[in-house]
Amino acid sequence: MFLDENFLLTNEWAKKLFHAYAKDEPIIDYHCHLEPTVIFENKQYGNLTRLWLNDEGIGDHYKWRLMRANGVDESLVTGDGDDYEKFLAFVKTMEKAPGNPIYEWSHLELRRYFDIDLTINTANAEKIWELANAKIKTDAYRPKELLEMMQVKAVCTTDDPVDTLEYHTALAKENNSFKVLPTFRPDNAWMIEVPTYSNYIARLSAASGVSIKTFADLKAALSNRVAYFHEKGGRLADQGLNTYFYKAAQEAELDDLLTRALSGATDFTSTELAQFSTAVQLHLMAAYNEHNWTMQMHMNALRNNSTKTQREIGINVGGDSMGDQVSLASQVVALLAQAEELGILPKTILYSLNPNDWLPLATAMQSFQGGVVQKLQLGCAWWFNDTFDGMKEQLTTMASQSLLANFTGMLTDSRSFLSYPRHEYFRRVLCQVLGEWLEQGRIPTDEAYLSQIVKAISYENAYHYFGFFD
């Protein structure tokens, strides 16, 4: 039956593990793009479109991509079209989307948040709209209440080093059942090829209190901001490395590159860009290691593929795709090896948007383990890979090359407060994989043992690994 209590679960052990041990575990969302401002203000959304699809340009661009593929005019995707017409356009898109995870997620979102078990189609659209909106108009459907509804215990937002974190500070003073913690996202610090780089460095100087003229100044400023994030509860960094190439450089070379960038130059060679990025990565790894942080490396993505979409609508609107850097693992290995030699290698989670990288990265990370439990992890099936097949492949790869029972589990990577059923989806896949292995005789029929693994991956590992509650 469609999305019944046992969907994705095809054997009795999978069903038992999910319903008894995974289903009701709390959630730690250690990578997302929710806005702390919106959480603090606890705004009330006007209707289902505003909460589910798009509110003043913030929304679920997974859904936007599919709507465009169905020929929906942009005014009904990110534009100023009527909210109900936007909702209908999404409904008609869903009618074309069997097999796409968004089809299953969207139905789960209606069921788990609104107790609406109607199929998303044109015939049911008006009823879904009425039932959902009646609840959205109540205080129980504001952001804080939605997080509590899903038993979310920690939300890690994505924040630039120059951010003030004022809303994180304000939220920390409240008596909420969850924490909202910053994640250090320093991509702008090494993007010297961007024409606005000097403007960004001026903002970083102001935020850190360090006048940045040399590479040593830049390092001091970044260290200052890492310490500030730590003070505000931050325990994670997130390096957005669309591509990565390792290249060492002398301090004088780095000073020259920074001077050129601050003067407005953008004509850097690929070698120079790799030198600057590598030097910043190594400095930050030392800072993370000093504070016992975990570094996430999100890699191999193509950003803003459509220059027309970027120019007319903006970034983070569904214009990205999987990257195809073929030499990624060898470059990452060079970085990890140098960090290890310097004694600065922090806990690290390696993600690639291209699953062809998973096995090379999983085998590479095993060369750098030691000192703490699962110092290096293979990141979960991220972004375009958070499908049934992608999750299953990632779990299998992690298990085959390392220790699955140490895995920190799922995240949302979402801008929507209705995305938390993705954790349920992941837990179903996890239990199905374990159930299959059990039926194949690969793991023992030991409920106490298997339940411990399921609960650990669902929640407990993330709780202990990141140290948010220490």
Helix content bin: 40-55%
Distance between the termini: 43 Å
The CATH superfamily of the largest domain appears as Metal-dependent hydrolases
Q: Enumerate how many helices there are, as a single number.
A: 19
Round the Cα radius of gyration to an integer and report it.
22 Å
State the CATH class of the largest domain.
Answer: Alpha Beta
Strand share of the residues?
5-15%
Mean pLDDT: 97
CATH topology of the largest domain: TIM Barrel
Textual characterization of the structure:
The protein is α/β, with parallel strands linked by helices and 470 residues long. It folds into 2 domains: 47-141, Orthogonal Bundle (uronate isomerase, domain 2, chain A), CATH 1.10.2020.10; 149-466, TIM Barrel. It is 48% helix and 9% strand. The chain is built from 19 helices and 12 strands. The chain has helices at 12-22, 36-41, 48-52, 61-69, 83-94, 101-114, 125-136, 143-149, 166-172, 197-208, 215-231, 251-262, 270-290, 307-312, 328-342, 358-365, 388-401, 421-439, 447-466, and strands at residues 27-29, 54-55, 58-59, 152-156, 179-181, 183-184, 236-241, 294-299, 301-302, 321-322, 347-352, 376-378. The protein has a 5-stranded parallel beta sheet with strand order 6-7-8-11-12. Strands 1-4-5 form a 3-stranded parallel beta sheet. α16 (358-365) links the parallel β11 (347-352) and β12 (376-378). The longest helix has 21 residues, at 270-290. The radius of gyration is 22 Å and the shape is globular. The two termini are 43 Å apart. The mean pLDDT is 97.
